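Kindly go through the following sequence and its backbone structure tokens. Advise at your convenience whether the structure tokens fit the sequence:

___
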Amino acid sequence: MNENLPSLLKPYRERVEGALKRAMPESRPDDGGVTLAMSDSLFAGGKRIRPILCMLTFDAAGGEPCAIDDIAAALEMIHTYSLIHDDLPCMDDDDLRRGRPACHVTHGEAVALLAGDGLHTEAFAQLARAGNIPADRRIRMTAELASAVGVSGMVGGQALDLLAEREPVTAQDRLEQIHRKKTGAFIAASAILGAVGAGASESEIASIRQYGESLGLAFQIADDLLDVTATAEEAGKRVGKDAERGKTTYPGLIGQESSLRLAHELVDRSVQSLPFDTDDRLLAAVARFVVDRIG
């Protein structure tokens, strides 16, 4: 693991936090507590991997400093909305997120549902008003993001994941399809948006797509492994829940050793796809971190 990575990424993380504070609507006493629930979830911590990926590809492709920040904040809003909804009793039924009670535990199910909806819509508003990026690029970025988090991507993957609880997956290619949709598509889009925003060439965007898709699948395999090997304190959420719910995971299907090997292979493929990187090779370092965090 690159031991300097946290310090190298700190300026990016600080930019994300600043952009989120600018973007988040102020809580009002007459809104039923929904903006408070949105804010509590948005600022509960997290690695900010998706917005940082967007910033890194933007910088590496020659984008003007900090011009992508508002769009990077939109990605974290989308991610937080997905976590709020994933934790609901009708979905994964988790009561712990980022080491804290989940949104629905603190604010109630109805407010949590609306908080997720609010973050989702605010994210696309952020894309629309991010004047530092030319409008034609923002239109393409909006289409990329909507595809990645809609029925073709994250939403569709979540639906398949729920179906797999009733009809266990026995084929590795089927499990890969679920993971690529549920987790991989959004991570890939995060990198792609940075490249598009900076005006990268079509061939460079295609290579960044390969980088992001391989990284996204490796990320989910690593999460599957952490659910088996990490403690709740280390993971910041309840672990062992996949087995409890009868979900098919990579460790359950092909074993822990083979899963770890596959995750490393995917990260290698991801790094080899990079058409460019920052001076500090941070895109490659973030990809390596995905599997190094397993320990």
